[in-house]
Design brief:
With 282 residues, the chain is an alpha/beta fold. It is built from seven helices and ten strands. It is globular and about 65 Å long. GO terms for molecular function: protein tyrosine phosphatase activity.
């Protein structure tokens, strides 16, 4: 499935280009379901709502914050009552800057961001490594922040930073992501997900949750190409590589195996798929 940008459907994105609010020129942001900031100096942020079958605003997929968009990002989290953030990239990767330092770490217990006189403060509360139930080599840090903004807005937010998910690549297809999504699923507000561009690694997470949502609500699971089209209609060019697309399938098959839901014939197919999968991703 080719990736393409139809800039006729991304007018706000084009308008924000000069203001320096977009990380990449070739990663567009669709107008039809973009997150709009209210009571703020401007309404634009490179972010889209993405639905799963039982929740029209389950996710907000967004680019990694830039220096010029940190205040926008945290204000969006306040406005949308975001309780969970997934960060799937690092600040620098392969020597290139992929994300601005938009959250405080222990040594600086709070950070302030400002957009035209509107201040947002992010306070560090606590941090630790996520302890997974199932065996995994995934390294994920869980940090709790209190976010305060204009008009007395305040929000407690849990930030999951996946440290070792390679850019344009995939982590081990174990149960780590399924466990993280289960933790986040109980929250009411949208789950914010970002990598650097907010489409590749981000799209993989969203597609897994889309399938999980159908499975857990007892709906038949749609064909995966149809699911991807639906996600891309909301967050343009979601899932960037063949590996990421295969990763989604491998995680789901491993999950169904783990839950003992595959009949013998399918178990054999799963073994064959896994062999080919590992050749593709290594």
């Amino acid at each position: 499935m080719k990736r393409f940008n139809d800039f006729e459907k991304m007018k706000a994105f084009k308008g924000a280009q000069e203001a320096g609010k977009n990380r990449y020129k070739d990663v567009g942001c669709l107008d039809n379901n973009r997150v709009k900031l209210a009571n703020w100096p401007h309404d634009y942020i490179h972010a889209n709502y993405v639905a799963v079958p039982t929740n029209p605003k389950r996710f907000i997929c967004t680019q990694a914050p830039l220096e010029k968009t940190c205040a926008d990002f945290w204000y969006m989290c306040l406005q949308e009552k975001v309780e969970t953030i997934f960060m799937l990239c690092n600040l620098t990767e392969k020597g290139a800057k992929k994300c601005c330092e938009y959250f405080p770490t222990k040594d600086k217990d709070k950070l302030e961001f400002e957009e035209k006189g509107n201040k947002v403060t992010v306070k560090f509360e606590s941090s630790g490594k996520v302890k997974f139930e199932k065996n995994t080599d995934a390294k994920v840090t869980e940090t709790v922040f209190t976010v305060e903004g204009p008009g007395g807005l305040t929000q407690k937010t849990t930030h999951y930073h996946w440290i070792d998910w390679p850019d344009r690549g995939v982590p081990t297809a174990d149960m780590a992501l399924v466990e993280l999504l289960a933790k986040a699923r109980v929250t009411k507000g949208p789950i914010v997900v970002h990598c650097s561009a907010g489409i590749g690694r981000t799209g993989s997470v969203v597609m897994i949750e889309y399938i999980m949502d159908q499975f857990l609500s007892g709906q038949p699971i749609e064909d995966s190409d149809k699911i991807l089209v639906k996600i891309r209609e909301q967050r343009n060019n979601s899932i960037q590589t063949d590996q990421q697309y295969l990763f989604v399938h491998q995680v789901m098959m491993n999950y169904f195996m783990d839950k003992k839901l595959l009949e013998d014939k399918l178990k054999l197919a799963h073994v064959a798929f896994t062999e080919q999968y590992l050749k593709c991703v290594h």
